[in-house]
Amino acid sequence: MIALGSDHGGYRLKQEIIQYLEKQKLEYKDYGCDSEESCDYPVYAKKVAEAIVSGECDRGILICGTGIGISIAANKVKGIRAALCHDTFSAQATREHNDANILALGARVVGSGLALKIVDTFLHTEFSDDERHKNRIRQIE
Questions:
Q1: Mean pLDDT of all residues in the chain?
Q2: Contact indicator for 38, 46 with CB cutoff of 8 Å
Q3: What CATH number is attached to the domain comprising 62?
Q4: 8-23 average pLDDT score
Q5: Which domain holds residue 70?
Q6: Which helix (H) or strand (E) holds 29?
Q7: How much is the pTM?
Q8: Are strands 59-64 and 82-84 parallel, antiparallel or unpaired?
Q9: Measured between alpha carbons, how far is 9 from 28 in angstroms, rounded to an integer?
Q10: What digits encode the pLDDT tens for the residues 87-127?
Q11: Nearest CA among 25, 27, 67 for reference residue 45
């Protein structure tokens, strides 16, 4: 299951990602926000991060205006490896090399077409399971 969260700046893009997930028949849970009314991104970053750490969800997608703040907030939760990606190469690399469990996107940085390609890449790329990558993740933890 995929955990979703955004602040007001990422709300519209989150709605487009929900449509994509539904078309792909991928299960998700939306942890908010529920409108474009101003709100605080750390609240939603924490909800999504905790859903992943608890095992309720496997991966997460977080969206704010730039993706920066929401990724910083998510990375404060032990066990989270949130990666801000603005291209498909980074999304693939962070899954293969870092086993990132949250994708962060900046709704004011990437258009929806590219964002959906990034989401697709992130969700369909597996961790390489290479010992050198495992070692680096252990060092991060």
A1: 97
A2: no
A3: 3.40.1400.10
A4: 98
A5: 2-140
A6: strand 28-30
A7: 0.96
A8: unpaired
A9: 20
A10: 999 999 999 999 999 999 999 999 999 999 999 999 999 99
A11: 67
